[in-house]
Amino acid sequence: MTRIILGIDPGSRITGYGVIRQEGVRFGYLGSGCIRITAEPLPERLKQVFDGVSEIIRQFQPDELAIEQVFMARNADSALKLGQARGVAIVAGVNAGLAVSEYSARQVKQAVVGTGAADKTQVAHMVAHMLKLPGTPQADAADALAIALCHGHTSTSLTKMALDKHKLVRGRLRK
Known about the structure:
- By secondary structure, the protein is of the alpha/beta class.
- It has helices spanning about 40-60, 75-95, 105-110, 120-130, 140-175, and strands at about 1-10, 15-25, 25-35, 65-70, 100-105.
- It is globular.
- It has five helices and five strands.
- The longest helix has about 35 residues, at about 140-175.
- Strands 3-2-1-4-5 form a five-stranded mixed beta sheet.
């Protein structure tokens, strides 16, 4: 089964995106970058996030969207703005009919690096290695690609576990 996954690393100033193709357990790079917000009032910044994510969805036609969950920042105002940027990115995905999955930063690091305590440099290095990129992507784009990879690994594992459980149950019913 082939699917295209859009990963989003939300931000009210810079929103990273990464798009990958998954075929079974193989991943391929399709694109990545950053939506750089230039507007000043918050409502205009949120509109730019929404429009940017909507354009990426039109361009790449993903099947699913994966996004990072909000973490509690030291500054409550920053956390609220991040949550709002995240919300408009989710709405852009839902408006396009995409299933949306959410992952904590720790889950993403665990799936890509093998430890939830990995730093940004380790994540970017593993993303470049896993997708066979010629160089390391910009930090926000690397994080978005990591979110997409996390979703690919997680959903594949959950599907396999469900199939294995189904086979086990069916095996017991036959006896």
